[in-house]
Amino acid sequence: MFRNKVEFQWTFELTPTKELFERICLGLGLVRDPKTITLSPRSLGPSLVQYFPRPGRLRVSVKLVYGREFKDVAQTDGPTIQSSSDFTAYKILAGAEIWSWMLGAMVAIGTGLSTYYFKGTAWGSFNDYLTMFLWGMGIDQGKSFLQALQAPTPASSPPAGH
Question: d(Cα 119, Cα 121) in Å, to the nearest integer?
Fold first, then answer.
């Protein structure tokens, strides 16, 4: 079977389960009922690793194809897909980055307005706009500098000949 390159054409139908927040929003009419997700990967062997974007009930079927011949395998219930906690740390980091960006934006807007806009009654000259533009560019460059300090540095390679 493997030497003759039998192709496995998989069909995964995931019926999403609704989580608590989704059920509440659905009851209030804020979101629509989630639709069935159909994935159709192919492999040259009887096993396959497949990522599912959300938890739910899974139905699996496969079509074995060799040249022009094929054999359908009946659809069957697959395992129940559960939410994974493997990427929780990344979600926390992403959330922290969003909150720090929002805090930085509020501080930047507050200090910029109090320093340049509210200080005088005659706002609107070319110099005022230029000053605010340069101040904003400085804030952006400062943010970029702090992000560059957080980025990991690549390992240096040993000199040639060692």
Answer: 7
Cβ count near 57 (within 10 Å): 15
pTM: 0.51
Where among 77, 111, 129 does a domain terminate? 77
Residue 47 domain-assigned (yes or no)? yes
Same domain? 70 vs 93: no
Q: Given the structure tokens 């395998």, which residue do they identify? A: 73
pLDDT tens-digit series, residues 27-46: 777 777 788 999 999 998 88
Contact 132, 112 (CB under 8 A): yes
